[in-house]
Amino acid sequence: MVILVEAIVRRPAPYQAHLVLGHARTLFNWAINRGTYGLETSPCDRIKPAALIGPKQPRQRVLSDAELTALWHGSEKLGYPFGPLYQLLVLTGARKSEVAGARWGEFDLTKKTWTVPPERFKSNASHLVPLSDAALAIIETLPRFTRGDHLFTSTYGEKPITGFSRGKRCIDEQMLGAAPWVVHDIRRTVRTRLASLRVPDLVAEMVIGHGRKGLQRVYDQHTYEAEMREALEQWAARLRDIVTPPPENVVRMRERV
Questions:
Q1: 79 three-state secondary structure
Q2: Is the pTM for the entire model greater than 0.85?
Q3: What confidence tens digit (pLDDT) does each residue in 183-232 have?
Q4: Is there a smaller number of Cβ atoms within 10 Å at the N or the C end of the chain?
Q5: Which structural domains are found in the chain, ordered by start?
């Protein structure tokens, strides 16, 4: 276990090393509790993450306007399935697994909603995503297959898309000069941009699927669908301003100045 984690640290990928060690610890503890695999101790028991890997630093990467523009136009060049997948990540702030595993049955295009079912949502509860007009426009361009109902697929709808590293490399080629980033940074960027638009924290948290906590979760049963929809429309409008090139005459005017 130590050899595996050290190899990941040397890449360097310390954050991933912490995740791998955490998943391995959970797996071995599960196997021990099952009592059917002959394991009595976990190889992770004596490993101290901070000593082996270093302190776990929270990620704080947020994409700039220039990086969002490069990401958006790079997605357009990439095409289906990864191109529109990345664009929906930017427009919704949803997790990569939620978008990649989306199925047509989860969408009500008339009501402009997407409901992520409990089995695919991190909190084991359904998650409602109001679709902005921009997000809906992208979804309506996606092909539909007869073999299955996955939105993003390379197997004619039978299975969800895989091979994310390949799609990420293609995007990176369009973002030459950008500092290293991971797909989850898109989600953090959306949350940060919602705050900059003065969207209330509760609504912004619900948009990205964090939801309510404590007594608020018990007593406040309002769905906040209208508020989330307004927030996502605001973000779509701001994103359009960011990624749309200025008119040629405006560019020339700026060059003169």
A1: coil
A2: no
A3: 999 999 999 999 999 999 999 999 999 977 777 877 788 899 999 999 99
A4: C
A5: 2-52 (no CATH), 65-243 (1.10.443.10)
